[in-house]
Amino acid sequence: MSTNRIGVMIYDNLGLGLLHDTYQKILNPFKVYCERAGYVISFFNDTTEYLAEHSFMDQVHDADFCGLFIVYAKYGTPEVEELFESGLPIVTIGSPREGAIAVSSDNASGIKDLVKYICGERNHRKVAFICGDADSIINTIRLEAFRESCDDLGINIPADYIRQSRFKDIRDVSRRTEELLNLQDPPSCIFFPDDFAAIGGINVIHNRGLEVPRDISYCGYDGISVVSYLDPQLTTVEHDTDSMGITAAETLIGLIKENKTGDGSEITIPTRLREGHTVRMMY
Fold it and tell me: Against a cut of 0.85, is the pTM above it?
């Protein structure tokens, strides 16, 4: 291909776009790496008004993109699926697809590390899990890893300890936290779906006058910047966003130079446990 312009897509249900902390932290090293390699970064326009007259493929042709970096998309929609059938070099984040290569954070290992720390090292047996979006592959991976890890430790998880919510939804996580705390036998520790949504649950806990971690323990997931300002510091799992962004850039540029499409493979980047101070030792 003759151009050096890469298209970047963040087509999310939440409408956060570049306000999404994890996306920001992946995109910055991706952008720096690509620009140093001589490529130009342009974003897709995903506003409803613009898409009514300009499909994503129209934008590909108009901008003459040589490759695509799909950070997040509404997978399954015809406009998005058309991109994967285009033969363009494509790299995605966290969503393995035919016609692309995915760069993913190791969500299964991240949850297993949390369970090992909270249940294995801190001796919690009554642990609850507030899920992310029901249709999210990331949520499926994390919930399965949670169940498997607890089972390996001989920990039974009652059905009412699993609550369905959404990623980044502070209000809904607040409601699910209320439900858990209102149980006749409430959990000693709550796994929140992500650090941002955890704010809702944390507010509920504080409003009840509960002391953390003496009265209740909890953990998040993602390692977003705001957690460093929380007191006590949140126990969470941190994505290696620098490695994810750089790996995505290296992989996409490699596909572009070789004029290849992705083979549906996945590159997994390790996570890191941040112990924080929100999980008490149970005796």
Answer: yes
